[in-house]
Design goal:
Elements lengths: L11 H5 L1 H6 L12 E3 L1 H6 L4 E6 L11 H14 L4 E7 L3 H12 L3 E7 L5 H12 L3 E5 L5 H16 L4 E2 L7 H19 L8 E6 L3 H13 L4 E6 L8 H18 L13 E4 L12 H14 L8 H13 L7 E6 L8 H4 L18 E2 L5 E2 L12
Parallel strand pairs: 2-10, 3-4, 3-6, 4-5, 7-8, 7-10, 8-9
Antiparallel strand pairs: 1-2, 11-12
Helix pairs in contact: 4-5, 4-8, 5-6, 8-9, 8-10, 9-10, 11-12
Length: about 400
């Protein structure tokens, strides 16, 4: 396995629970801890005094966002199991699938992405091109019902040809092993509170997609005694993540960590500090909303931090809504930015999309959503190159 980039800080989880450091396969991918910063301009616009931004968009030097923390545990486990390839899942423009492909390659692993149809957007094109640039094998699946048989057949073929099946990483990296990355993030935030970088938060807002980020934060806060309540803003339909599935992920992660280290608190029942926020999803997954677009513009204009329309714009829309309705008066609020803000390699974005699998080329030839959620025509240039 290739040597990853090194950061300057040990993981907070390992400092507190030494047996986890001994038992859990782990590889350092992220540049942690990520900064937490007061954003007074946006706070003033929303009538808030204490609004902070957790910059997980800077979690990796190559590619940031919330997936890096999960992949530190997932890819290390794949390597420890002797895998030479990993499989993962997402929408056609999946940030998770892209992050998996990027960091798997850096560790000498191959990657395969099974991608479901989704609403088109410019970022879908960029993510597909970057995924291909780092060597991801891409399979487009038109309907959710076809996913399981296709993956089963692919794994069987791979086992026959190479003697072992690929290692499966769930969509979003959200199983107990991946969720540990955000238990660590909660402990990291507690250390930043102790260091005086921010007061103890009353609320932490985060996009709720596959559930690992919100469940991990809630579990970490509960384990450390922080009274912060996680507001997971739903960005996927209930059929992808029901409350029962989210709470099961919370419980399974708690049991898994206690099995690794007996000093980890015994936490039973559903999380008492995790609120699922509906009402901001809009027409569906990856469909931009006016509220999300307004929130993105507020953040970009006031703080110069870019968000996107599928996850973080909708999550920030919940903060804007609550602030304007007086719910957040006298509270300390953290918005957890799970977006990547690292630039893509120009050579990846200038690639010829016709070299991608035929099943995904239509994303380059059909209308895309603009920032407001409407569509605009997509006009590839004469040489069929996309500049992003």
């Amino acid at each position: 396995m290739k040597s990853p980039l090194r950061s300057t800080s040990p993981r907070a989880l390992f400092l507190r629970y030494a047996e986890c450091a001994r038992i859990l396969p782990w590889v350092e991918l992220g540049f942690l801890p990520t900064p937490v910063q007061h954003i007074p301009t946006l706070a003033g616009q929303l009538g808030l005094e204490r609004l902070f931004l957790k910059r997980d968009d800077l979690s990796g030097t190559v590619y940031g966002g919330n997936k890096v923390r999960k992949l530190e545990f997932l890819l290390a486990h794949a390597a420890a199991r002797g895998a030479e390839r990993v499989i993962t899942f997402g929408g056609a423009g999946s940030n998770h699938a892209l992050a998996t492909a990027i960091y798997a390659r850096r560790l000498g692993l191959r990657s395969t992405s099974f991608l479901l149809s989704q609403a088109n957007a410019a970022y879908v094109q960029r993510n597909l091109l970057y995924s291909a640039h780092v060597g991801a094998e891409i399979h487009h699946v038109s309907r959710l019902g076809l996913l399981k048989p296709k993956v089963t057949a692919y794994r069987a073929w791979h086992r026959l040809r190479y003697g072992r099946p690929p290692y499966i990483i769930p969509g979003g990296g959200s199983n107990p092993r991946g969720t540990i990355g955000y238990v660590n993030a909660a402990l990291e935030l507690q250390e930043q509170v102790r260091a005086g970088e921010l007061p103890e938060p009353d609320r932490v807002y985060v996009a709720l997609g596959s559930g690992g980020t919100a469940a991990g934060l809630a579990l970490g806060f509960q384990a450390t005694g922080l009274a912060s309540v996680v507001h997971g803003v739903r960005v996927t339909p209930r059929e992808f993540l029901s409350p029962a599935k989210l709470y099961r992920l919370f419980r399974d992660t708690a049991r898994f960590l206690r099995a690794c280290d007996s000093t980890f608190p015994s936490i039973q029942g559903p999380p008492r500090n995790l609120v699922i926020r509906d009402g901001f999803l809009g027409p569906g997954y990856a469909c931009f909303t006016p509220e999300g677009t307004e929130a993105r513009e507020l953040m970009n204009q006031s703080e110069g931090v870019p968000l996107e329309g599928t996850y973080t714009g909708k999550a920030l829309a919940a903060v804007v809504h609550d602030a304007r309705n007086g719910v957040l008066a006298n509270q300390t609020v953290v918005f957890w930015n799970t977006h990547n803000s690292r630039p893509f390699p120009p050579e990846a974005l200038q690639a010829d999309f016709r070299k991608l699998p035929r099943s995904v080329r239509h994303y380059f030839l059909t209308p895309v959503q603009d920032a407001g959620g409407s569509v605009q025509e997509n006009h590839p240039s004469e040489n069929h190159m996309v500049t992003g």
